[in-house]
Design brief:
222 residues, alpha+beta, 7-stranded antiparallel beta sheet, two-stranded antiparallel sheet, 7 helices, 36% helix, 27% strand
Length: 222
């Protein structure tokens, strides 16, 4: 089989290119075809990576450093159970306040002694006097305190304070109620209404007057 004449093929190809170079239209078509090929090539080089693929790449490698979880908040301090022994004695234009507050477990054994103290109160020259329950000790007053009575352990005694305050004008029962509710708030207890006062307190008859006594149990934050 005879081989093709490459010289004639090259000559024919050269003739076609010479014809194209002489024709502006043909040259433009060829140039546009070349450029379109370039655009397709460039388009292949730019593409978007799906979001799930990016997220997968950004996951921490197993065993590598990770963001530690936020530290847990410390638990709130538990409420401390408290007991208050209190009494208000109105005498002329003065109100005498008897008050002791302490841990419920320690105060529980002194309720009867407290009532005994109140029943023994008498007034001499408008000053209260009393008979101390067994084991109670009296200390001199200071500042607003008329007296301080200690009871319980000698190493860590509980205290009952005796404080006189002036009585403002107005209904005595309203004044007593406002102070009872003031003490209730100190133990985080809800206030009571006027019609509940007799139910929530105890009336102890004294010589010429009455003591409004109460035993309150509630909570106080540490």
């Amino acid at each position: 089989m005879p081989l093709p004449d490459l010289t004639q093929a090259d000559s024919a190809s050269s003739d076609r290119w010479r014809c194209l170079s002489k024709s502006p239209i043909a040259a433009g078509i060829v140039l546009a075809w070349i450029c379109s090929g370039c655009d397709q090539t460039e388009a292949i080089r730019h593409y978007r990576v799906p979001k799930d693929v990016v997220a997968e790449r950004e996951k921490p490698v197993s065993g590598g450093p990770e963001t530690p979880p936020p530290a847990a908040s410390p638990p709130a301090s538990p409420a401390v159970s408290q007991r208050m022994l209190g009494a208000i004695v109105l005498r002329s234009d003065t109100a005498w306040f008897f008050k002791a507050v302490g841990p419920d477990a320690q105060m529980a054994g002194h309720v009867d002694a407290f009532r005994s103290l109140l029943r023994s109160i008498r007034f001499v020259d408008e000053k209260p006097q009393w008979t101390l329950p067994e084991g109670w000790r009296q200390q001199a007053g200071a500042g607003m305190r008329f007296a301080t009575l200690e009871f319980g352990s000698a190493e860590d005694p509980l205290e009952l304070t005796v404080i006189p305050l002036g009585v403002p004008p107005g209904e005595p029962s309203a004044y007593i109620l406002s102070n009872v509710n003031r003490w209730r708030r100190q133990l985080q207890l809800p206030p009571i209404a006027a019609e509940e006062l007799d139910k929530e307190t105890e009336k102890i008859k004294l010589d010429g007057t009455t003591a409004t006594a109460m035993v309150l149990r509630g909570s106080a934050g540490e």
